[in-house]
Amino acid sequence: MKKWMTTMGLLALAVMTLGACGNEGKEAEKTAASSDKAVETLTLGVMPSTDNIPLILAHEKGFDKDHGVEIKLENFKAAKDRDAAFQAGKVDGVSTDLVAIAIYQEAGMDVKITGNTYGQFDLITGDDSVKTTADLKGKDVILSKKTGTEYAVTMMLEKAGLTDQDINVSEVPQVPTRLELLKNNQAQAAILPEPFATMATADGLRVLDSTRKIGINPFVMGMPQDVIEKKADAIKGMYEAYNEAVDYIKDHDKSDYIQLFIDEVGFPETLKDQITVPDYTHAEQATDEDITSAFTWAKEHDLLTKDLQPKDVLSDVYFK
User: Fold this and answer.
1) What is the reported pLDDT for 128?
2) Of 87, 160, 162, 226, which has the fewest beta carbons less than 10 angstroms from its beta carbon?
């Protein structure tokens, strides 16, 4: 009897040992499979902006690596520095706008649009006599000429029944300077991105109009065709990770990620409670209407001479 119990005990131990080995083997297989999945780096040139948040979150939470890509963002304070790095091949792509895409194409760069980004320009005023965009007729408006900001202002004016000939343009490329001039009553309006729009309203200024309000989205991700061909899987992974980050934002409390807006975009800590989180959506492709509108404007302002159609600049690497 004692011998039988000893034998059964040894048998049970053997089964447990085999089970443990089996589990370890499965874990080892999973680890090996994970390590075998190549992770390719995708470097993107960006300006501090709220449309970067899903990409930043995707990297911080590891969503990017889950989809076989490491998203690396290179931050630039000036568009000219971002574009110089792009032209030199130091970044794989750039978060930019449709006017810039026209300029890249005119310069001979085969840059394609892989998808939209979720940006926004706001037209801000501090003048009590200006109640609507239409009230800007004959007024001074601060923007940067021959850029996406001037295009945005033109579209806002058109919606209000005006043209860019109806305003006095004051050219100021530096965004912080635009805000300071507006606060000091040096102009009646200025076009601003975040975080400067929130900083402006916190100081008592008002939003007259925005690119989203008038129904346009000129913000896109641009990449050279050769990069798209070489890193197609990484680009697909980037968009899958982006969508996962958008879901995370929708499913979690603002306090779980709001610090990113301060650390990465530049919102002042003092305005933490006033930050409006954009209503991010899953990634989308730029529309033919937005592209045609921006390219027509670029031609009218001598930035584009080529006869480009939306199909000439839209990539199907992710959106078919």
Assistant:
1) 96
2) 226
Is the CATH number of domain 122-210 3.40.190.10? yes
> In angstroms, rounded to a whole number, what is the distance separating the alpha carbons of residues 28 and 21?
10
- Tell me the C-alpha distance between 195 and 93, whole Å: 23
Residue 223, amino acid: M
**Alpha-carbon span 20 to 38, nearest angstrom:** 29
Residue 315: burial class (beta carbons within 10 Å; 0-12, 13-18, 19+) = buried
Residue 261 DSSP symbol? I
Answer yes or no: are the C-beta atoms of 168 and 138 closer than 8 Å.
yes
Non-local (6+) Cβ contacts of 9 within 8 A are none
- Tell me the whole-structure pTM to 2 decimals: 0.87
Q: Is the dihedral of CA 176, 300, 94, 244 positive or negative?
A: positive
Spatial distance between the Cα atoms of 38 and 34, rounded to a whole number of angstroms: 8
**Tens of pLDDT, residues 233-282:** 999 999 999 999 999 999 999 999 999 999 999 999 999 999 999 999 99
Q: Do domains 40-118+218-313 and 122-210 have the same CATH topology?
A: yes
Q: Domain ranges in the chain?
A: 40-118+218-313, 122-210
Asked if 121 and 152 touch (Cβ cutoff 8 Å), the reply is yes
* 147 in Cβ contact with 79 (< 8 Å): yes
Any idea what the Cα angle at residue 260 is, between residues 255 and 265, rounded to 5°?
A: 135
Mean pLDDT over 163-177 rounds to: 95
The 3-state DSSP class for residue 256 equals helix
Of 290, 116, 281, 151, nearest in space to 216 by CA: 290
Which residues neighbour 298 within 8 Å (Cβ) at sequence distance 6 or greater?
99, 102, 103, 106, 151, 304
Residue 4 clears pLDDT 90, i.e. is over it: no
The domain 40-118+218-313: what is its CATH number?
3.40.190.10
